[in-house]
Amino acid sequence: MVEVRTADKLNKKFLREGMWPTIFCNGCGHGVVLEYTFWALEELDLDMDKVIFASGIGCSSRLPGYINADGLHTTHGRAIAFATGIKAANPDFKIVVFTGDGDCAGIGGNHFIHAARRNIDITVIMINNFIYGMTGGQLAPTAPLGSIATTAPYGNIEHPFNISNLACALGANYVARWGVSHPYQPIKSIKEGIEKKGFSLIEFLAPCPTAYGRRNKLGDIKKHWAWYDNNTILKEDYERIMKYGTDEEKDQVRDKIPLGVFQDIDKPGFFEAYEQLVNRLMEKESKTKGGKK
Amino acid sequence: MKYERDPKRIREVLGNKVQFILGDIACVYGGLLAGVSFFGGYPITPASEVAEGMARRLPRVGGTYIQMEDEIGSIAAVIGAAWGGAKSMTATSGPGFSLMMENYGFAVMTETPCVIVNVQRTGPSTGQPTLGAQGDMMQAKWGTHGDFEALALAPSNVQECMDFTVEAFNLSEKYRNPACVMTDGEIGHLRERVVIPDEKDLKLTERVCATIDKDKYIPFTNSQTRKNCKIPDFPTFGSGYHTYVTGLTHNEKGFPATDKQPDHEKLVRRITEKITDDADKLVSVEKMNLDDADIAFVTYGATARPAESAMEMGRKNGIKVGLLRLKIVWPFPNKLITKLSKEVDKVIVPEMNLGQIVHPVREYACDNCEVVSAPKIGGEMHLPQELYKYLEGK
């Protein structure tokens, strides 16, 4: 008989006892991303002693605390740099970084771009809720034009960061963006990201009813979640309509946020390249020594 | 592929036992001897030679060198590597040291062993990049926010750059606290003879890793395997303890306890007391001519060299002057300074800053004797004659 896997069973397996309740508000998307990650880990059937989680500061960065595994909850924006060191010390580890839009695209932008450029073998799960939620609703670098934040009380005049596009431009091996109301594709993406050698980014668009939705008049939790369904579109549909659609159809989708897998390539990861370098040096030296004898 | 320290291999890479090398390179040698397997760095004068030396040698012993995107990333990666099981280090100078301050505190709070070499240059700000100074001595002790104890050594010559880097690793591993090698542009860019210690003469301390049953394990409390030891056993990532490590105030289990006063006090008192309780063991000084001295130089690092010359000039001219050189500056040798202050009439503290270590000297001299600051800034060392003038009139 096939064993039925339920969320309850997954929680028993992957949740860290003693950390309940979570810090998350009603209607927050972070728990969903955590659940997707549990499903992906379950399907990958990894040795959880060798999967290490790292995070910075912010709501999303609290996620490693809820996972029964080693976790490094670091300083604001720096998780990816910390993760680089963990991986360097033991390349057998699988490293998952949980980060947010402020943590990753704001204060941590420099570490993000360089880890992607180096193709460091880690999986970055960036939960983008368009706002600094934990600190109470300040302007994020991903905030849509015109959106309201406590530090943009008259509307945001800055252009938002498209982090997935940036990761593609940097040559990251795997880049995907998903929402939190359809489980299957994002779970598959987390799996692919963790299995992928080199740098992978999975961006999640997640509602923050408390700090973002409320201030931007997106309605109650249900309506706020619906905003994400109404304002996103599958990448393939977006591309098809923008290429073949009527002007009216194009206008309908132009401002929607595309979801999907944007990049899936296989450049050698940093640590694979480093190992080759070490082997090359060792070989050269053993030959030189042999010659002397 | 996890790094294993291979003494034979390390010595092949280091080369001859006796060499004539830069202070910065001696720090590289010290790191390699100690078994460093991760170096994260960022170029900065006058510390770049440490990164260059590591980039050349670390891959050859099977370790990992990464040039990070900045000094914040460097120290972050170094701390991450330590949790992954590596002995890890970085090297920088003033501006980079300033950038590292937040994560320096993270290493303190999470009790992470790691080594920072600071080849000090003049400041504030960009200052004089190629010139030496001792302007970061207080920063090492107070630079990150909150209460903490620092471990810092100050080499006075190239041999000590190597020896003190090894010792910094030993202290860092023992106390699970970051340790700083506070060298400077003068010593870092000085070439001198060094003798590489033989393996049998090399004393290495390794962190005590957690071995207790997983269900009994408590990560942030007194050692569970050593009696009366405030240093917790280290749960290397991957060893199955599933430790949550956070810079937030945490309870013994490692869980955030951000709104609980007793948890914070218990934690911060333990992580400071694990060092202050051992203050007597952590006194490392060199004494010269102090037995009959009326005047004493209290010095550290590069400044000890002209101070020694000034002392010799003074002795030739019949002045009873001695010298106390601090090898470990932090924790500060409080009792020793108080004792000295009762034995001499005057203490002179030459420093390449406007007076930093003179402050704890004055504090612990307790008005028992006169304490005089002998500052010099601008990237030039004190001349012996300049320091000799402080002896005259006595």
Walk me through the topology.
The complex is a heterodimer of chains A (293) and B (394).
Chain A lengths: L6 H8 L15 H15 L6 E5 L15 E3 L5 H11 L4 E7 H7 L1 H10 L4 E6 L2 E2 L5 E2 L23 H7 L4 E5 L5 H12 L4 E6 L3 H5 L7 H10 L1 E3 H10 L2 H7 L3 E8 L5 H23 L1
Parallel strand pairs in A: 1-2, 1-3, 3-4, 4-8, 7-8, 9-10
Antiparallel strand pairs in A: 5-6, 7-10
Chain B lengths: L6 H8 L3 E5 H12 L3 E4 L6 H10 L6 E4 L3 H13 L4 E5 L1 H16 L4 E9 L5 E5 L4 H6 L8 E3 L4 H18 L2 E7 H4 L2 E5 L48 E3 L14 H16 L8 E4 L6 E6 L3 H13 L4 E6 L1 E3 L3 H10 L2 E6 L6 H8 L4 E6 L8 H6 L5
Parallel strand pairs in B: 2-3, 2-4, 4-5, 5-8, 7-8, 12-13, 12-15, 15-16
Antiparallel strand pairs in B: 1-9, 5-6, 7-14, 11-13
Helix pairs in contact in B: 2-3, 2-7, 4-5, 11-12
Descriptive overview:
The complex is a heterodimer of chains A (293) and B (394). Chain A is built from 12 helices and 10 strands. Chain A is an alpha/beta fold. In chain A, the strands form 2 sheets. Chain A has an 8-stranded mixed sheet with strand order 2-1-3-4-8-7-10-9, sandwiched between helices. A two-stranded antiparallel ribbon of chain A has the order 5-6. In chain A, a hairpin with a 5-residue loop joins strand 5 and strand 6. In chain A, helix 1 (7-14) packs across helix 2 and helix 2 (30-44) crosses helix 7. The longest helix of chain A has 23 residues, at 270-292. The model of chain A has no long low-confidence stretch (mean pLDDT 95). In chain B, the strands form 3 sheets. In chain B, strands 2, 3, 4, 5, 6, 7, 8 and 14 form an 8-stranded mixed sheet that branches. In chain B, helix 12 (358-365) links the parallel strand 15 and strand 16 (370-375). In chain B, helix 2 (23-34) packs across helix 3 (48-57), helix 4 (71-83) packs parallel to helix 5 and helix 11 crosses helix 12 (358-365). At the A-B interface, strand 2, helix 3, helix 5 and helix 12 of A face helix 4, helix 5 and strand 10 of B.
